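Shall we go through a protein fold together, starting from nothing but its sequence? Please make up or recall a protein chain and show it to me in full. Go ahead whenever you are ready, and we will take it from there.
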Amino acid sequence: MRTLHDLRDEMLAVAQGTRPVPPAHSVTDDGAVSGLLGVLTPANRALMHLIAAERPETVSRLAQLANRTQPNVSRALQDLAKHGLVRLVRDGMSIWPELVAAKIDVDLVRGTCRVVPMAVE
């Protein structure tokens, strides 16, 4: 797993134009598309909104903000991370979530999804 320092360096390099923006992640396998769309429950979308709006410093804090139990939130975050929508950052004993996806484009004709990463500020 990459460190926060590595992530910061990557984001600065993208912002300075010395490194390209990571490409959008496309999903074409029917099972993967179903899995990605299936993880976008109202409760999980609410978690992603809280991560973007509040930038919680721990998973426990996110659980408090969401009024959900910490194990429940941890499981949801694992599912979201598996599909490339959030990233779980570890620093020593601390783990906090970061939103990775800005949006998801769904092509109903081709049956594909594309996860579009957050823009670097």
